Amino acid sequence: MTESSTNLRLKLPVVCIVLEVILIILFGVLVEYDHDTSSYKWHKNKTQPTDYENEFYYRYPSFQDVHVMIFIGFGFLMTFLQRYGFSSVGFNFLIAAFSLQWATLMQGFFHGMHGGKIHVGVESMINADFCTGSVLISFGAVLGKTSPVQMLIMAMFEVTLFAVNEFVLLSVLGAKDAGGSMTIHTFGAYFGLMVTRVLYRQNLDKSKSRNCSVYHSDLFAMIGTIYLWMFWPSFNSAITAHGDDQHRTALNTYYSLAACTLATYAFSALLSHEGKLDMVHIQNAALAGGVAVGTAGEMMLTPFGSMIVGFLAGTVSVLGYKYLSPFLESRLKIQDTCGVHNLHGMPGVLGAIVGIVTAVAATTDVYGLGMSDVFPEIAKGSSAARQAGMQAASLGVTLGMALLGGLIVGFILKLPIYGAPPDNLCYEDSIYWEMPGEEEPKTELTLVKTAPEEMEKLN
Questions:
Q1: Nearest Cα to 159, choosing from 236, 103, 206?
Q2: Integer Cα distance of 252 and 331 in angstroms
Q3: Is it the case that residue 444 has pLDDT exceeding 60?
Q4: Full residue range of the structural domain in which residue 278 is found
Q5: Is residue 382 part of a domain?
Q6: Cα separation of 338 and 81, whole Å?
Q7: CB atoms within 10 A of CB 416
Q8: 85 alpha carbon, distance to own chain's centre
């Protein structure tokens, strides 16, 4: 089934090898261990170092959870397509492995170098995974319609733009976005939506028969959902300040996800003519609460406030899958394979709005001395209204950079040199993968040619 245009025998090896060689050289020149990772630095001037004070023991459990979300959660969530399971998990694996290396460099460039070197440790690993998560969100929008070479090129540009956007939001504007509602989800979703709009396929109906799920593919996708749902409190709280901040972020996410799940089941059944649940809603909308509580997770949102946010996120997401996705495809020509606009885009914007409202309500009566952890600018004398304004500006900057960046990268990916599948072979594993063969059934012609003794055995 492979056509010459989709043959990756040279394209993929060249891109992978060249990119990895560049990464190895840049790591060799620019990257070194941070204080908690370097043997010399950790033991320097310490008479009795307490090893359990090392950042590794605080952050690594969260890193493990985030890492599982990236490679298993996102990978299996996208296996719902009946003939694209190898590519969903396999290309997710490839893109993530490249993105986390490139993200380490890009985030190091923009978030400060130390003596001309990028310092790496467990926290930089978490941040690189966050950046990778944004790329995988965009991957969901173009799933099944792009080649792995296109995805690697997209990841290279998106990681760079992600690092720039993150620097502007967190360092220049001073916004707070612990769980990445803006930096990760909103950016990744709208970047991917713009890319898929530029890559619009007028004759994609030729692959319509493969753009659907079967029983076992939806079951595999639910594995991804459950992993993401379970570990999302770690995702949102992974890099927040130790103590009450991290504790509060995990708790707020926990309750938001629970409320979101009930809203998802309720509206999925309500919007069905027969009152039946739609697996697409359950796989995706049930996770929207984790997205929507990301920005305000470390703030004093309160448990019941988190539940309200989660309920709203689940409702908005289900409504998006039911009504908005068909509209976007038919009217705006946005072919969003995984519905990332409903799971990451709209809930991400909702999360940003919740962050604005929560910031403007911040007072020392509520935060006490903890204000310096959550809103350091307010603790230094800035007003809550100004902090809320920076949160709102950050949302605007994110949307602008995502849409403009996606537009430019989309046109780059549209060049006919990357081995993209034709319209009639989208959502098909066999054009890129060696497929497990099945034993061919014996035909009458085969039986005629079989030796007499073998015929007797068959009879």
A1: 103
A2: 37
A3: no
A4: 12-431
A5: yes
A6: 10
A7: 7
A8: 18
- The DSSP code for 276 is P
Mean pLDDT of the chain: 93
Q: How far apart are CA 71 and CA 158, in angstroms?
A: 18
CATH assignment at residue 372: 1.10.3430.10
Q: Of 12-21, 30-39, 181-190, which gets the smallest average pLDDT?
A: 30-39
Q: Global pTM?
A: 0.93
* Nearest of 126, 227, 230, 143 to residue 180 by alpha carbon: 126
Residue 43 tokens read as: 């033991």
Under DSSP, the state recorded for 434 is P
Structural domain total, the chain: 1
Q: What is the pLDDT, as a whole number, of residue 48? A: 58
| Structure-token pair, residue 224 | 């991804």
State how far the alpha carbon of 107 is from the alpha carbons of 59, 126, 146, 162, 441, in Å: 18, 11, 27, 9, 55
Q: How far apart are CA 171 and CA 176, in angstroms?
A: 10
Residues 6 or more apart whose CB falls under 8 angstroms from that of 401 comprise 161, 164, 165, 168, 187
Query: Do the beta carbons of residue 142 and residue 195 sit within 8 Å?
Result: yes
452 part of a folded domain: no
- Which token pair is 24? 């190895």
Whether the per-residue pLDDT at 45 is higher than 90: the answer is no
Residue 100 token pair:
């986390």
Structural domain contains residue 245: yes
Give the pLDDT band (50/70/90) at residue 99: very high
User: In 25-116, which ranges are E strands?
Assistant: 31-33
134 occurs within a structural domain: yes
Both structure tokens of 154: 């997209």
Rounded Cα gap, residues 109 and 100, in angstroms = 14
